[in-house]
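Thread: quick sanity check before group meeting

JM: Hey all, I'm pulling together slides for Thursday and realized we never actually wrote out the predicted structure for the chain we discussed last week. Dropping the sequence here so it's in one place. If anyone has concerns about the input, flag it before I start.
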Amino acid sequence: MPTGEQILGVIPSAQIKTGMFSKKTYTLVVTNTRLLFAELTNDALKGAIEEARAAKKAAGGGFFGQWGAQMGVALHFAERYLALDPETILAETTGNFAISPSEVKSIKVERKTEHGNDDNAMDRDYLRLTIEAQGNKREFNTEGENPRVNDARALLATTFGQLVR
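JM (edit): ok, ran it. Output follows.
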């Protein structure tokens, strides 16, 4: 671990396409020295959902309360990284990795809107992060606009400075 490395914030539920119909979900963990990519595995997600449902049930929540508790799991799962050591995060799964500012060419953060269709009339705002690093370009789309686009830019700019636009 780089000396004095501190976790500054997280960007939850950042998904990247890995094939025609497949994707991987990461929590992007921003430290003062690098960006960590913590993969959200199916096993970890199932465990977090069961924990949320059990906690709500223990607090007297019925079916709908338990269902509601599991809806916020991805955000709460991501927030747990705020209290972990960066090296612990990297060791959590084999799919976790990090990039440092010296490896990054640019980071673009945009707000995008997915327009509702006949089945779903609501529009959905989300973040698109395009990271050019190590000779390739990765494009991540979040589940929602959390954090807000300007907050995400500011968080990443703390570590990556002018590379963020």
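AS: nice. The chain has one domain: 7-47+75-163. The radius of gyration is 17 Å.
JM: adding both to the slides.
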